[in-house]
Amino acid sequence: MNAQQLSERLKRVAAYVPKNAVLADIGSDHAYLPCYLALKGDIEKGIAGEVVKGPFESARNQVRQEGLSDVIEVRLANGLAAVESVDGVTAVTIAGMGGPLIASILEDGKEKLSGVERLILQPNVHAKSIREWAAFNGWSIIDEEILKENDKIYEILVLEPVSSHVSYNEQELLMGPFLMKEKSAVFMEKWDRESSQWKRILLAMESTEQTVEILAKKQELIHKIQLTEEVLHGENT
């Protein structure tokens, strides 16, 4: 993978970045994503934020090699601290992290999202955390995508701010309002796998001491299995 040829996962993230956006890519690693978009002429300006020194240096070198130093600025900062109000950022991408970490980055940097028109988020796991954050903070899920690459399954969530309250039911928070309607082959594979794993854990719990904590965990797993299987077998409304 390089700035000219992204992985399929990052290519799909890039596809949701609006034309002529001022982009902040948080956790940019080698800055491949903003470089790719800048080389195509799809963004007006880019900020590549990295909290770790090594990836920060890699990103800075990548931007220089591509001759994009006048378009993309690489900053060493934690999360959305990489964004300044004068930047006029209109789109934020955060890809390749766990859902809870992405949600915490958004929560910790909420004041930096003023003026941002779109969030494109690609959690590796636990996308539910992001959907819960969106519902509580005035962001609506306008699109979702699920894909498989190198035997790993990824979800992409596209959020835009709304003035009215947004609410999602338990299944939508867990599985995604768009994804559970589409029920793609990858979606079915992911949740069949998750349900099977929960059933294995449940079975293993039968041979342990039935403490209050174990009983509560069992009920939680049973509930999640019911939620997913209703969708998988077409019983959701």
What structural keywords apply?
single chain, 237 residues, SAM-dependent_MTases_sf, 7-stranded mixed β-sheet
Describe the protein's architecture and organization:
The chain is α/β, with parallel strands linked by helices and 237 residues long. The chain has two domains: 8-178, Vaccinia Virus protein VP39 (Rossmann fold, 3-Layer(aba) Sandwich), CATH 3.40.50; 185-232. It has nine helices and seven strands. The protein has helices spanning 8-15, 32-39, 53-65, 99-108, 128-136, 170-175, 179-182, 185-205, 212-232; strands at 21-26, 43-50, 72-76, 91-97, 118-123, 139-149, 152-161. It has a seven-stranded mixed β-sheet with strand order 3-2-1-4-5-7-6, sandwiched between helices. A hairpin with a 2-residue loop joins strand 6 (139-149) and strand 7. Helix 4 packs parallel to helix 5 and helix 8 packs antiparallel against helix 9 (212-232). It is elongated. The protein starts with 7 loop residues before the first helix and ends in a 5-residue tail after the last helix. The mean pLDDT is 95.
Please give a quick description of this structure.
The chain is of the alpha/beta class and 237 residues long.
In the residues, how many domains can be counted? 2
Strand content: 15-25%
Mean pLDDT figure = 95
What top-tier CATH class of the largest domain fits best?
A: Alpha Beta
The biggest beta sheet reads:
7 strands, mixed
CATH topology of the largest domain: Rossmann fold
Counting helices, strands and paired strands, the structural category is alpha/beta
